[in-house]
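so my prof wants the structure for this chain in the tokens format not the other one, which i didnt know existed until like an hour ago. anyway here's the sequence
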Amino acid sequence: MMLRTRAMRMTSRRLIDLEEELKPLLAKAIKGAASAKESERIQTIFALCRQANKLEQYRAWHAQVKAIMAVDATQH
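here's what i got, hopefully its the right format
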């Protein structure tokens, strides 16, 4: 159980680190965009990636809670 929790935390940290790494690339891509519409598309893609990251973190948390509840249910 502890290994699973640690793995989830590490995954969440990696996703957060990845987002931080992508921010400068996003800024560079927006600067180099050929048009305002292309810039908007790039920002939309980044926003979708951020939402996917949050969803993945929620799923990891939810799985962890279910596992804890299952262990508690078997102990009682």
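also thought this was worth mentioning. The first helix runs from residue 2 to 31.
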